[in-house]
Give the backbone structure.
Amino acid sequence: MNELQNIVSLFAITGTVQEIKPLGEGLINDTYRVITAEEDAPNYVLQRVNHNVFPDVDMVMRNIDAVTSHIRQKLEEKGETDIDRKVLKFIPLKDSNKLYALVDGKYWRIMVFIPNAITKQAVNPESSRAAGRAFGNFQAMLADIPVELGETIKDFHNMEFRLQQLREALKENRAGRADEPQVQAMLKEIDARAEEMCKAEQMGREGTLPKRVCHCDTKVNNMMFDQQDNVLCVIDLDTVMPNFIFSDYGDFLRTGANFVAEDYEDMNAVGFNMDIFRAFTEGYLESAGSFLLPIEVENLPYAAALFPYMQCVRFLWDYLNGDQYWKVKYPTHNFTRANNQLHLLLSIESHYPEMKEFIDGCMK
Ligand code: GN1
Ligand code: MG
């Protein structure tokens, strides 16, 4: 038996494993598809949780257990059908009810593979509207979760912390890249906006902006759609934690409303797609508009700008550190990503008044 099969055998799955092969394009965890031999046994997804990124895997899995159980219960109460395709189902170990295995210092988990579902790297206005509704619903369903969720990555979307990390990386200059002119030029753009971009933390301290249970990684590819373009469920739940709602709104637009992928190299092609913005915003406000505070709604354009800005800072940080966090395909890959995010930010800034006006219209 090979290593992966060995690991799968620790979990209480049904069916016989026929094949295990790599799945998806996540940059953090390693993911495999487990195919079972029997017609009536589900296939599974096997995943190694990146222990460097998520130091407390036990907390991650406790959060996920709480979130998926709560959503499952909500769906049951609503009389939904096909629930196993609408919320992830993790499989416990054979000899305990733990949802993960620790083997040779590596953490593994298994969930049911959702059949006839697709993920997308890009969306159109229709699927964006559906995504907006889905993430709004996700926040709404979790508003009354009875347990307090842990912060699986401390200060994950804390802009002040991310800028601090960048400053430290600059000082350490581990990869010897800090003096490159392109890096220096980017730092100027970052500095010019630093104070404005930290206003969520400021409002949080003043007590005017609440934290709610958020997904915190609402990239387009973290959602499953059925063949008719309906959203089935939200996946990649490792980062679900209390946060400002800006996270979910802003990070979706960062990926969904960019005309190109986050590492696309032609900066002239990078830009903010207002059709996607309008559709996603409409969908999101349809399901979340009723519980959001005015201060949250007013700051949605800021949220749209914050996430490309934060991701620019994070990619640049990793570039300066010598590419320790994100997998890279060539030496300047992280710089290209950072530059792409900066160009997206510039495009968003040029649309600010239009965005404000559109949001006001949705709330009337
Ligand atoms: C990571 O795991 P993945 O690829 O969905 C990262 C996100 C970044 C994203 C950028 C835990 O997401 O915060 O926005 O890469 N997740 C973590 O591609 O750091
Ligand atoms: Mg993902």
